Amino acid sequence: MDSAVPDALVRMVGITKNYAGVAALKGVDLDLRAGEVHCLIGENGAGKSTLTRILTGAEQPTQGTIEVAGHTHNELRPAAAHELGISAIYQETDLVPDLTVWQNMYLGHEPRTRYGTLDRRGMRRSARHVLDDLGVGLAVDLRVADLSAANAQLVQIAKALTRENRVLIMDEPSAVLSDHELSGLFGIIRTLCDRGIGIIYISHRLDEVIQLGDRVTVLRDGRGVETTEVRDTSIPAMIRSMVGRDLTDQFGKVPAARETVALSVRGLTAAGRFQDVSFDVRHGEILGIAGLVGAGRSSLLSGIFGDLSPDDGEVAVEGQRLAGGSARAGIAHGIGLVPEDRRGAGLVLGRSVQDNVTLPSIDSLSWGPFLRPGAMRRVTRRFIDDFAIRTPSPAQPVRFLSGGNQQKVVLAKWLARGVSVLLLDEPTVGVDVGAKSEIYALMNRLAEDGVAIVMVSSDLPEVLGMSDRVIVMSEGRVTAELSRNEATQEAIMEAAVPTSAAVA
Ligand SMILES: Nc1ncnc2c1ncn2[C@@H]1O[C@H](COP(=O)(O)OP(=O)(O)OP(=O)(O)O)[C@@H](O)[C@H]1O
Ligand SMILES: [Mg+2]
Where does the record place the ABC transporter domain (predicted)? Predict the structure, then answer.
């Protein structure tokens, strides 16, 4: 070993990465020790994902070196990175939807029987074992297409664990996990560390950094600002070095609820997903929907919007009943939905930022058959500024934006349209602290304009900070309705945990 730091598994030195028109990384240093959790934080577009993609060989650096196990490389190719025991769980899942859980877990490195055939039984059995180890009660024969975002994420983690790893990169693994699943994940991470694996953990949730991390590196604008021991830092200090200033009163909640009902939902039922859900949302009101992942919250939003056709019940906007099961009816009645799976449902990845922002509002931005390019540019510009969307230009394909910035584009898309009821599914997942405040400010502004907002969120501080009223769901049913004063972390958790699980 000729490494200067004897226990460093990996040392990245002076890493620079230029894309056409974008300097994503500007001379970043990062080292990873055996058995540590090294957190990587920074605002959307700071370069976190790019840095880790260079380590897995998915991208090649423009400059800099990567030292692994005493050897220095100018770049790594994916096969070489695998060989060196470097695995990653990316922000966007790379599972094959049509294959089963176990097939996905062993895709590309399927074990063989001694007759040279695929060892299906072995794979199913070990897949089961890895998932059990993770505390995930998921049938290995399910198709990935049928899994919730959270479960798909867990399968990704399980997939990475089927290999012999030395370095494991997790790019926002917690984004779609509930508290319960998260503590399971943390348990696994600690076990892996005890085995000497080094983990690079990217997250926008700074409490996780405090809870889990040994060291933390802050990136800002493609530069490494600092690397510190987690025990020597604090959340405010991390925020300061990420955004270069202090942030106070993140939510800035402004009560704006009026008397008139904007959205009313009665006895809405979709077999196996949610049962007999009823509530009203007034103009200017923000209704939070809390619950564990899998409680039926996202399906409920689809049921209201019309993506999913309910078996029973009614949805009415401004007293007008919607024809069930048609998203077009939802849109026509002024309902907007920002889905949880933005890459799948929210965006056209190959199209520009401007196209994505303005497509759903094309009617209001054209004049008869003519588009109004000036108006489209102005609207896009406004959202790019308002949300601090980091893009070299409005013409940049959304595919090339960082995860959090793609997220902001989805929000802008619906807000540009002007809706009277806005359904938000995990609106700030993957969004950095600064942009989170921007999104909250925007929700407040919309509420003041009379928009009724329904927000599904697994982020309890966010639910408590932003909601006028909170509904809790468990196993497809509403188990509690709490006023802003009654809503506490404890009250929500109590109603969220399924009674069957409490007994077990
Ligand atoms: N293939 C690409 N082509 C052009 N620009 C790119 C490409 N990939 C990334 N970028 C740009 O590089 C910068 C860093 O992106 P990166 O995805 O590393 O950010 P991040 O820190 O992971 O952000 P987030 O928290 O939003 O996930 C961004 O400005 C992004 O738009
Ligand atoms: Mg990223």
Answer: 10-246, 258-500
